[in-house]
């Protein structure tokens, strides 16, 4: 397999943030202090470059997502936050839920795909090409065995649009933002002018093509509608807090992403290119293409 990942340089964007030294990073997780008193946790040495967030409040903290499950995450969370932690999923894809089973319960949007994965977990086959060694920047970390990997079941508590997580001095409101994934949610921290966007937006390749049991069903109409709805919050935001690559992005990207998807939907995008195989997961890469925009791209199905 060919992947641009293997040629890539270490990412420059982490240098924008203060690194938080930790004992339980397992040489795998890195922790950074982000705007609005949020801790960003990342897994920078796997192709996904997934991020998740620990959002402290005066009475409890909220952990948004639990990562890929490559290395144990519970000791890190306990080190960073010894008190009560409420765990929430941005959506049910494998790179955000693999540590869920370490926690008593996980709040997630109610959806048939989510219920099935919560009840049964996921086998390693559901990750497609993502556990191949080429997807790891420095090979497999110590103690990780791809052959025995699986995502265990977890206890899910459903949330709905409009629900509020009250952390004491901080409140986070749930917005249901289907599109990339039908169960996608964002969390709005109005006081701190932050929007946690999950995989609906991040400064990387946005996936607008899934249609299978492992990833659920993508909807272009929903995706555009979600961006249009969330764009109304732009004047009340300082940062998007994103679940892949750089932790933050400018709020105006919500509007730009809406316009990008509308252009793709209308067949008006001319500079398509073949998709990097790292993005193809379970798909036949020849059926997908990628269109480039300012600071992000969109992977979608070829129409011909
Ligand atoms: Zn993801």
From TrEMBL:
Pfam families (UniProt xref): Lactamase_B (PF00753)
Signal sequence residues: none
InterPro entries: Metallo-B-lactamas, NDM-1-like, RibonucZ/Hydroxyglut_hydro
Domain Metallo-beta-lactamase: 49-244
Superkingdom of origin: Bacteria
Matches recorded under PANTHER family: ACYL-COENZYME A THIOESTERASE MBLAC2, METALLO-BETA-LACTAMASE DOMAIN-CONTAINING
UniProt-recorded name of the protein: Metallo-beta-lactamase domain-containing protein
């Amino acid at each position: 397999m060919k992947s641009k990942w293997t040629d890539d340089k270490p990412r420059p964007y982490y240098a924008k943030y203060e690194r938080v030294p930790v004992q339980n990073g397992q040489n795998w997780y890195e922790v950074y202090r982000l705007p609005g008193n949020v801790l960003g946790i990342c897994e920078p040495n796997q192709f996904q470059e997934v991020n998740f967030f620990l959002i402290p409040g005066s009475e409890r903290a909220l952990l948004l997502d639990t990562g890929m499950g490559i290395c144990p995450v519970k000791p890190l969370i306990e080190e960073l936050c010894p008190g009560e932690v409420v765990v929430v999923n941005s959506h049910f894809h494998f790179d955000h839920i693999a540590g869920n089973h370490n926690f008593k319960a996980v709040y997630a949007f109610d959806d048939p795909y989510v219920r099935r994965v919560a009840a049964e977990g996921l086998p390693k086959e559901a990750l497609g090409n993502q556990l191949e060694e080429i997807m790891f920047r420095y090979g497999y970390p110590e103690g990780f065995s791809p052959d025995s990997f699986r995502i265990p079941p977890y206890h899910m508590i459903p949330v709905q649009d409009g629900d509020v997580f009250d952390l004491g001095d901080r409140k986070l409101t749930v917005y249901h933002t289907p599109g990339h994934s039908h169960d996608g949610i964002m969390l709005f921290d109005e006081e701190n002018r932050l929007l946690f966007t999950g995989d609906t937006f991040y400064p990387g390749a946005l996936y607008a093509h899934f249609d299978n049991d492992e990833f659920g069903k993508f909807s272009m109409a929903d995706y555009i509608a979600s961006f249009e709805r969330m764009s109304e919050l732009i004047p009340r935001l300082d940062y998007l807090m994103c679940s892949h690559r750089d932790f933050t992005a400018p709020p105006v990207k919500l509007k730009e992403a809406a316009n990008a998807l509308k252009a793709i939907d209308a067949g008006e995008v001319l500079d398509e290119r073949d998709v990097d195989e790292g993005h193809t997961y379970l798909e036949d890469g020849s059926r997908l293409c990628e269109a480039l925009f300012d600071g992000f791209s969109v992977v979608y199905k070829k129409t011909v």
